Amino acid sequence: MISKDLLLEVASNQKSDLQRHASALERSEMKDLPLLRSHALIISGIRRCGKSTLLVQLLRGGYPDAFYLNFEDPRLYGFEVGDFQKIDKIIEEREVKDVFFDEVQVVEGWERYVRQKLDLGDYQMVITGSNASLLSRELGTKLTGRHVTRELFPFSYVQFCEFADLKMSAESTMDYLNLGGFPEYLKSRRQELLHQLLDDLLLRDIAVRYGVRDIKSLQNLAVYLISNVAKPVSGNNLRKILEIKATSTVMEYFSYLEESWLFFFVPKFSYSQRKQLVNARKVYAIDTGLVTANSRSFSEDHGRRFENMVFLHYRRLYPEIYYFAEKGECDFVVFDRQGLVALVQVCVQLNPDNLKRELDGLWEAMKFFEQKESVLVTLAQEDEFEKDGYKVRVVPFHNLAK
C-alpha cells in the first residue's frame, strides 16, 4: 500500500522531471491521436522509444493540469489496486478530469479502475506501457471495447532525418541503418545505452515479469536472434543450437520477446493456419541501431540489417506481414484489413549475380497472388522491369520512406 502524501509527492516530481527532460522533436504520431472521453487511449511500445515524450507533448498541447503518474517509479513499489482510491481522492480534490498513466501494466488489475472512470463518462484516460499485451484481444475483453490503441516505435527514417538535420539520401539511409531511432542514443551516440536497454528488456520486462529462472538461456537466445535478423528461426533448431532443454521453453521465450517489443516473428504465408504455425518464422528486431550495438556477428552484414529496416518501415504502417517462399522467395507480403497491399523484395544493391534471383522471387509471388505490380527496395538504385504484364518498380529506400 502507498500513502496519499507519497502519491502526491511522486506525481509532482515525475511531472516536473518529465517536462524538463522531454525531447524537443514533436512526434508525427501526435497528429492523429484519437482523444475521446468515452474511450481510453492506449499507447504501447518498447522501452525508451518516446512514449513519455509523447505524453509531454499531450500535456503541453492541451492538458497542462492532467494528473500524471509513472508506475515504474521505485517509490511506488507495492502499489496495489486498492491504492487507486487514493488517486481518486487526489483528482477529486484537484477537480482533474484528465488522467495519464505511464507503464501501468505493472499494476495487476488496473483495467478495472480505468473502466470505472470511463463509465462515469467525463474522464480522459491516456495509458502507456512497454508490453504488447496492452494491444491484445484480452485487453479488449477487459475494457469491453472502450479503448483505442496506438503503437509507438523508435524514430522512423523521416523522423531520424528531421532529428539529425539530414537530407533524405543513400548516405543518411546508411546512417539510420547503423544508428537506428532510439532518441536518447541519437543524442549521445553512446552504445552502452543500447547495451543497457537490452539488459533492461531481458531482466525487467521479461525475467521479472514472467518469472524466468534460466536468465542465461534467455540472454543467449536474445543475442543469437539479434545477431541473425532476417533469417528463419524455429524453436526446435534453436533448442539444439543453444542447448535449451525443451522446444516449448524456446517458444515461451519467443512470446516474451515479442510481448516486450524486442522482436517480431514473421510467418511464412500459407492459406493453412496449421502450416503457418509449423513453418520457420523470420525474425526482425525493433531497431537496427540496437542490432548494430548488440550483434555478435563480426561481418558487417548490411543486407540483413537493411531488410530489417525495410520491414520496420512497413510494420509501422501495417500489422500483418508474411514472407513468401515456394521455388523462390519474396521478402514481404503485406496486408491491411482490405487485403493485399504490397509485395516487397529487398536488396541493398542489384548486380548481375543477384538480379535474376531477386526478380524470380517477385515474378513467382505476383503470379501466385495475381498482383500486377511489386516493389524492390534498394539503397540507391532506381529502375523498372516488366515481364508478361507484371511490373517490378526498383525504389531507393529514401524515396520509399517519403
From TrEMBL:
Domain spans labelled DUF4143? 204-347
Report whether ATP-binding shows up as a keyword of the record: yes
Q: Does the keyword Nucleotide-binding apply?
A: yes
In this chain the AAA domain maps to: 39-161
A single Gene Ontology MF term assigned here is:
ATP binding
Which InterPro entries does the record cross-reference, listed alphabetically? AAA_14, DUF4143, P-loop_NTPase
Keywords, in A-Z order: ATP-binding, Nucleotide-binding
What top-level branch of life does the organism fall under? Bacteria
The record's listing under Pfam families reads:
AAA_14, DUF4143
Write the protein's name: ATP-binding protein
Give the source species. Belliella kenyensis
